[in-house]
Design goal:
The chain is mainly alpha-helical. It has one domain. It is built from 13 helices and no strands. The chain has helices spanning 3-7, 11-25, 32-44, 49-60, 64-74, 79-93, 101-113, 118-129, 142-166, 169-174, 178-183, 192-205, 216-234. Helix 2 runs antiparallel to helix 3 (32-44) and helix 6 crosses helix 13. The longest helix is centred in the middle third of the chain and has 25 residues, at 142-166. The chain is globular.
């Protein structure tokens, strides 16, 4: 099942793509933003279209043997490269603006695979998102499901509100979308200074040049995240 990686000139790059695809698909779907990130990363690493499709298909189908073999290759990363990989994974997990419980568990798995302590993962998460690493929920608990349903209802309400507000052209032109605040790790109503500081910090963390040591796939994935941060900042139209 892992023939492509074994015959590829870049097995590490392909394996990283497989694990990132698994992370993206762990919440039941791969969003357009996540797919763009994965496709750009694969093409940058000269991974053929066959390899891209194989990686995404295996991730969607939870092909355990394929994922395990990718893990065996990625776990060879040294400490510095492991931390860069985790930063990349955290950025991808937030590409669709939503961090699911399953994605949290995959991030924890990656940290364990790479021998990165939970405390260090939490520090990385805070550095990348400005928020504490949330405690993963327990899907076997009824309380967790009730809370999940409550979040879903609140999200539907927010979506309805955004849809209603979207009909007001003047408001849509003057108010940045809620997703822009979320991308910068801010609450709605943040000050200009807070927005500028968040942008400077995040653009430095996610700058593509930092990921050259992980290969062209990582650089391309980081570029997508960097552009998303830049787009969010520009929506505030700060002079």
């Amino acid at each position: 099942m892992f023939d492509y990686a074994l015959t590829s000139a870049n097995p590490m790059g392909y394996s990283i793509t497989v694990l990132l695809a698994w992370l993206a698909a762990s919440d039941g779907k791969i969003s357009e933003e996540e797919l763009e990130c994965l496709t750009s990363a694969s093409k940058a690493g000269s991974i053929q279209e066959k390899g891209i499709k194989q990686a995404i298909l295996c991730a969607k189908n939870f092909d355990l043997s394929h994922i395990n073999e990718a893990c065996e290759i990625v776990k060879q990363l040294d400490t510095d490269h492991s931390l860069l990989f985790l930063e990349l994974a955290i950025g991808l997990s937030l590409a669709d603006g939503y961090l699911g419980n399953s994605e949290l568990h995959v991030l924890l798995f990656f940290a364990d695979l790479l021998d990165v302590p939970l405390k260090k993962l939490g520090a990385l998460f805070t550095q990348v998102t400005s928020h504490s690493f949330p405690a993963p929920g327990d899907p076997s608990s009824m309380k967790w499901w009730h809370q999940r349903e409550g979040r879903g209802q609140r999200q539907q309400s927010k979506d309805h509100t955004r849809s209603h507000n979207g009909r007001n052209t003047e408001q849509s032109q003057t108010s940045p979308p809620a997703s822009a605040y979320a991308t910068l790790g801010l609450e709605a109503g943040a000050t200009i200074k807070e927005i500028q500081e968040a942008f400077r910090r995040l653009s430095k963390i996610h700058h593509p040049d930092r990921f050259h040591q992980l290969g062209e796939e990582a650089v391309a994935a980081a570029t997508i995240t960097y552009k998303r941060i830049l787009t969010a900042y520009e929506s505030f139209a700060i002079p």
